[in-house]
Amino acid sequence: MLIIFCFVFIVSKKHDQFWNFLIEKAQPSLVQLKGSSIDRLLNVHGVDYQSEINWEMQIRGRIKKIKSNLHKRYIWRVMIFFVFASSYYLLIFGYLYPNCERNMISRPKLLSNFNIRRSLLSRLTVFARETALPYWKYHLPQSYPFENSFNLFLATWNELSIKTKEIRGNNFLGLMSKELKERMFEKGDSTSDQLHFGMSSAVFSIKNDIYNSLHWKNYAPSVMIPFLDEVTKIEDEIGLEYDLADRNSKSVINSQLNEIIYITVIYSLAVGFLFLFYYFIYLNKQIKQLESFETLQTILSMGSY
Q1: What residue intervals traverse the membrane (predicted)?
Q2: Which residue of 30, 98, 115, 191 has the fewest CB atoms within a 10 Å radius of its CB?
Q3: How many angstroms separate the most distant Cα atoms in the chain?
Q4: Rounded to an integer, what distance in angstroms lies between the CA atom of residue 14 and that of residue 255?
């Protein structure tokens, strides 16, 4: 932009120099032309003409006016394009593109969060069952190769808590549809006690229920098995919501990409029309003016010999 302004001032300066050249060449003939005109009025037409108009100052005034406004006309046209281009740049690269980029980065994390929570729930049931099995009437000794299953359960429980909280951050909500948000945070499967208030609530509730049972050593199969069966339902719900999140996030990103494409196409067409019906016409006039200047310069150069 600075280069354009420098170029405008250089062109304006050259234009003024040329007009000064015309004045310099025209001034010697001005007095002679004025005297010849007055003599013709007096001798041929019998008119005693007393000029009160200073033609030289009038010409200088006109040239001065052109000198003071030429660069403004160029700058005004440059500023129109600058504002137009800046608006496009700020809209695309200041708003739409960062949002789209952020969503494209968040989408794999969102889908990964669903898979990780589903995997953690499976691990949670394994460690919970391993902790409770030794106290059941029918069990296989050392059925699972875990030395301290309850500590592993606690580690998985903590990791699941972190992943469950993450679902509300990292720009994940912007990739979800209203339907998915309702299934996750508001209402879910009415036939399931755990899923009745949404999947996130179900995950929080079931992991705490299992933890409380193990913490208070309530290992009875009648207590643990319903919890473990409920986990299976939650895992299935997470799988369904994963598919929905996959479609939602893809739709959001595609919509944002289409917006960028549409705005870019509209901007390109607008710039084309602006150039053809505004800048091209103006520049064409300037070219013709320069051609007239060249003709004047040729005439003045011939007259100087």
Answers
A1: 74-97, 260-281
A2: 191
A3: 142
A4: 51
Question: ∠ at Cα 214 (212, 217), nearest 5°?
Answer: 105
Contact (CB, 8 A) for 58 and 230: no
State which amino acid sits at residue 223. V
Q: Please give the C-alpha separations between residue 118 and each of 124, 192, 271, in angstroms, as whole numbers.
A: 10, 18, 51
pLDDT tens-digit profile of 282-300? 778 877 877 777 777 676 6
Q: How far apart are CA 34 and CA 30, in angstroms?
A: 6
CB-CB contact of 131 with 197 (8 Å): no
Count the Cβ atoms, other than its own, within 10 Å of residue 248. 20
Residues 6+ apart with CB under 8 A from 171: 102, 103, 106
pLDDT tens column, 20-40: 777 666 666 655 666 677 666
Distance CA 82, CA 210 (A): 64
Q: How many residues comprise the chain?
A: 305
101: which residues sit within 8 A by CB, 6+ positions away? none
Nearest-angstrom CA–CA distance, 97 and 89: 10
Measure the CA–CA gap between 125 and 233, rounded to whole angstroms: 12
What token pair was written down for 48?
Answer: 């005693």
